[in-house]
Amino acid sequence: MEYGIQLYSVRDLTEKNMDEALRQVSELGYKFVEFAGFFGIPAEEIKAMLEKYGLKVSGTHTGWKEIAEHFEETVAYHKAIGNKNIIIPGGDFSDQTKLDALIDMINEFQPKLAAEGITLGYHNHHKEFLPNKDGSNIEDQLIYRTNVMLEIDTYWAYVGMKNPIALLERLGDRVKVIHIKDGDAQGNGTPLGLGTAPVADVYAKAIEMGLPMVVESETCKPDGMTEAKICIEYLKSLEK
What we know:
The chain is α/β, with parallel strands linked by helices and 240 residues long. 47% of the residues lie in helices and 17% in strands. The protein is globular. The chain contains eleven helices and ten strands. Strands 1-2-3-4-5-6-7-10 form an eight-stranded parallel beta barrel, surrounded by six helices. A two-stranded antiparallel sheet has the order 8-9. Helix 3 links the parallel strand 2 and strand 3. It has one domain: Divalent-metal-dependent TIM barrel enzymes (TIM Barrel), CATH 3.20.20. The longest helix has 20 residues.
């Protein structure tokens, strides 16, 4: 099995030394990475680091305004590093007006990105599954009003709607990749295997559906790389 990691998991190192972070996640056994910012590093340097450590880029978390307001620069950068998946990492969509603006943006820029060979995705937190104060529901409207690719964060789905397995089954091929992640039901994250989320069941469902798995562990206790190591060791234990 091959696993990826969302580099936000090791942000305590990427913001200081991206090259060292990529070297270490590669040594841990991760085969692909999902970026959460580039810290001003030129695209050609990122590409060289990936090649040096034998890593693939599976996607990036990129804010929707960056896509809308800096489209050409964003496309050029992602093409240069070989990325074909730009994923909106959430945002403030807490009422219908804000949600409409997001949906309009997705419906405008998804085909533009597709013409450049790039898929546009959306990554959920828990609030997407809960009604806003005005009754609007973010995830439902993304599903029914757009064709955006859905990167399901299975832990936040667990916090928000309790059953990430049922969600994956319901969404089917709208989901192209998942975050595999752990924590308690109140939204406190942990490395894999140390929380109450149904990680083993998520793992089995991802295998069944052929979904790439991207690890995310957020707390950096005692540091991000230690958590990254715990996570991949847990995933390897599930293989047995």
